[in-house]
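User: Please look over both lines:
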Amino acid sequence: QVQLVESGGGLVQPWGSLRLSCVASGNIDSIFTMGWYRQAPGKQRELAAEMFSTGSPNYASSVVGRFTVSTDFAKATTYLQMNDLKPEDTAVYYCNLYEKNGKEYWGKGTLVTVSS
């Protein structure tokens, strides 16, 4: 069983910054991607940012230039540095791990609220 635990969410003012962390543990097979999805109230879950095991990142267009994903695949740990936060970034952020064998795991999520 693989477990993902997120931390770092909270309340931040517009244009502020937050850093999310996620650590995976358990019987982890070879990782294909590790990253972050988010779900705003009343909306579907969407990709925010992910890192491929090749070292290439992938970002949603709405976060390009503001968010940075970094991943230590050896430690199964990923971070999301979020700068210049906007109210529309308010969401529950979920850590995601996708193995090369096709198995996928999710964290329980951490709430990010951007409000003055």
